[in-house]
Amino acid sequence: MIPLEERFPRPSVMGVVNVTPDSFSDGGVHLDPEVAAAAARRMIDEGAAIVDVGGESTRPGSAGVSLDEELRRVVPVLELLAGEVPVSIDTAKAEVAGRAIELGAVMVNDVTAFRGDPAIADVVAQCGAYVCLMHMQGEPRTMQVAPRYDDVAAEVAAFLEERMRLAVSRGVPEDRICLDPGIGFGKTVEHNIELLRRLDVLLALGRPVLVGFSRKSSLGKLLGDPEATTGPLPASIAAAVAAYERGATILRVHDVREHVEALAVARALA
Ligand code: HH2
Prior knowledge:
With 270 residues, this protein is an alpha/beta fold. Helix content is 42%, strand content 13%. It is built from eleven helices and eight strands. Helix 10 packs parallel to helix 11 (256-269). The protein is globular, with a radius of gyration of 17 Å. The mean pLDDT is 97. 6-hydroxymethylpterin-diphosphate is lined by residues 16, 18, 20, 23-25, 54, 57-59, 90, 109, 111, 132, 134, 180, 182-183, 210, 212, 252. Residues 16, 18, 20, 23-25, 54, 57-59, 90, 109, 111, 132, 134, 180, 182-183, 210, 212, 252 line the site of 6-hydroxymethylpterin-diphosphate (HH2).
């Protein structure tokens, strides 16, 4: 298996396909497996390097779903994609990750960085998948109540370094790992901004960085609405281009075509 940085050169776009009724920006849109699979294929046609299929919302306040329900949502989509499309499975459950890899997924995107279900490390190691390890302070149900850090960039980097060491000790080769600051996961607007400004602190860990700022509420708040729960497309594109220019490799986005076009120009001008 080639290193992640060769398989996903900078910048690569990851398209988001949430097979959920309650995701913060696209809940219910892709609940029908046919619709979800068609969206995934369209995203690849539009230039995404990979699509991230998820059956559990991690929006602020969400409580999680059962294993059976998560499998019921994502398995039909993966069956329809039939291994013809590069897929990342957005899950914290070992069983979902294993089933998804059997059905052709090449990456496991675990927003708990192997804390939710430690057995997921063995699945990733044994099946030879790529993995994204993400930082989150707290858990989705409560993470936005009062996020607090002394030095957000240093603390996020220390956490990701520890999780990466653990993954390697469990048999996951380092060159299959990418790291994610977890924009909006137990972070205020200011924390998210600082993480992007100081992305070099994460890059110093030596692994490709994935950033998911697309549609997140911090963007709407930055534009002046303190009650915003989402952010608009132009703001998402600006954040993705800024993240790319600061060194991010994979940009996780909902609106693939627009981001691919913006990043192609940013790359040409870099
Ligand atoms: N953000 C979300 C979900 N998964 N995974 C990674 N690695 N990085 C992220 O920033 C990230 C993620 C939240 O976005 P979305 O999937 O659109 O919403 P929801 O969790 O409500 O389904």
